[in-house]
Amino acid sequence: MMDSAMIDRLETTFKMLAPRGPELTDRFYAHMFSRNPSLRPLFPTSLADQKKKLLASLVLVVQNLRTPEKLQDPLKEMGARHVGYGTKAEHYPIVRDTLISVMADMAGDAWTDQYAADWSAALDVVASIMLTGAEEAMEAQEGKTTDAATA
Ligand code: HEM
User: Fold this and answer.
1) 103 and 111 in contact (C-beta within 8 Å)?
2) How many separate domains does the chain show?
3) What secondary structure letter does DSSP report for 88?
4) Exposed, middle or buried: residue 81 (CB in 10 Å: 0-12, 13-18, 19+)?
5) Which residues of the chain have pLDDT under 50?
6) Whole-number pLDDT of residue 25
7) How far is CA 14 from CA 20, 37, 41, 138, in A?
8) Pick from 98, 93, 85: which is nearest to 35 by CA?
9) pTM of whole model > 0.85?
10) What is the pLDDT of residues 33-67, one digit of tens each?
11) Predicted local confidence at residue 39, as pLDDT
12) What is the pLDDT of residue 129?
């Protein structure tokens, strides 16, 4: 799914932008909330911790592109926690497109359509693992409710 050339490009672009992590995450939330104000209340008032955690999770993903099996459990667990934050499946493309748009702006002339396509595909993989974790968590929860009702 992610071939070596694609992973190279994801690493290259991330290396270009990760040193500007605080700017990336500042711009990410500003951009996302300006276009999707209804998402703001899902987040805590102060975004300082949130910005660091988002950046750390992107670092984790990029560091493990060549060992994707290491991403399964952490991303499923993260997806399961997102159910509690009120995250819905339809929010994931918003996060994906916001991130790509901010990265493109920051990279300027160095950005290409290929990079956008690579990040789009990579973030869809991340979202699908997170959503698998979310579904599993919801099924486990339903199982408990049913057990309680029949007990
Ligand atoms: C690429 C997809 C995403 C990544 C990598 C990501 C990453 C993170 C991380 C690392 C945290 C810190 C807490 C934790 O690990 O559980 C977090 C929290 C959170 N995320 Fe995401 N997230 C993603 C998608 C989304 C989407 C689509 C939404 C929907 C709007 C969302 C909303 C939130 C909220 C509301 C919090 C909790 C803030 C709080 O109450 O502390 N995230 N996210």
Assistant:
1) yes
2) 1
3) -
4) middle
5) none
6) 98
7) 10, 27, 29, 33
8) 98
9) yes
10) 999 999 999 999 999 999 999 999 999 999 999 99
11) 98
12) 98
CATH number of the domain bearing residue 134: 1.10.490.10
Closest approach atom of ligand 1 to CA 86 = 35
- Centre of ligand 1 to C-alpha 85, Å, is 8
Predicted confidence at residue 143, as pLDDT, reads 77
pLDDT of residue 102: 98
Beta-carbon neighbour count of residue 78 at 10 Å? 18
With a 6 Å cutoff on the Cβ, whether 92 touches ligand 1 is yes
Q: Which amino acid is at 58?
A: L
Asked if residue 57 has its Cβ within 6 Å of ligand 1, the reply is yes
d(CA 138, CA 142): 6
Cβ of 120 closer than 6 Å to ligand 1, yes or no, is no
Where in the sequence is the domain holding 73, given as residue range(s)? 4-150
Kindly state if the Cβ of 76 falls inside 6 Å of ligand 1: no
Contacts of the segment 112-121: beta carbons below 8 A, 24+ positions apart: 114/9, 115/9, 115/13, 118/6, 118/9, 118/10, 118/13, 119/10, 119/13, 120/96, 121/1, 121/2, 121/6
| Spatial contact of 46 and 101, defined as CB atoms under 8 Å apart | no
Distance of alpha carbon 85 from alpha carbon 65, whole angstroms: 26
- In this structure, are residues 18 and 59 in contact, taking their beta carbons and an 8 Å threshold? yes
